[in-house]
# Entry
Amino acid sequence: MNYEIKQVDKFKFVEVGEGEPLVLLHGLFGALSNFKELVEHFRHTHKVVVPILPLFDLDIFHTTVGGLEKHVQKFIETMDYQNVHLLGNSLGGHVALVHVLKHPERIKSLILTGSSGLFENGMGDSYPKRGDYEYIRKKVEITFYDPAVATKELVDEVFEITNNRLKVIKIISLAKSAIRNNLGEELNQIKVPTCLIWGNNDIVTPPFVGREFNKLITSSELHIIDHCGHAPMMEVPVEFNKILEGFLARLKQQ
# Structure
């Protein structure tokens, strides 16, 4: 399903449904398509919002986790969202963590899946290689347990990004910023209810990362899904949505 991309001030986003806002933050190579099943499922119970993060639009000095967090913070304030359920995958999870640490007042819950912030097998080492489609295809495939999830359309999207020299510079800047910005010593400050959903076969942020988040965020619960890689909401959407639905339902009863 195609969603209308709305614009308010400098912010571009999708917003569907009514209820408490469920704000979804995509990762470094993320796009709206990553959340298709999630949006469809939760639009009936929540106001589902996907801000388009300005990964390639910030100047190089602000192309950092902190720069993206400022964008998210201004967006949430501009839209005057309250009682926000903030969900982030990969780099989007890292941005969500920084946001909750700095501005917890509007956040009702935090949902992390394959989040950076503690440890990740970085893509900023030899990656990305420009002009080598086969290399990019393999890199996209290892994001998932089942390589078939890496459709040609998905590989083409990443290939297009990695063929643009300026975008590559910004990807590397963001990847390095994520590695530098380790939150291990701050996570015990997070008090909002937190749901951690991890793929047992995630090789970018392996399951031990999810367990470490669970140990450091005292208000968290951890769900590990077998036969699943770095993007559970794409690879096993039915199971992911069921876990998230249960978490949100328990919150309502508190």
About this structure: The radius of gyration is 17 Å. The first helix runs from residue 36 to 42. The CA atoms of residues 19 and 46 lie 4 Å apart. The chain is about 40% helix and 15% strand.
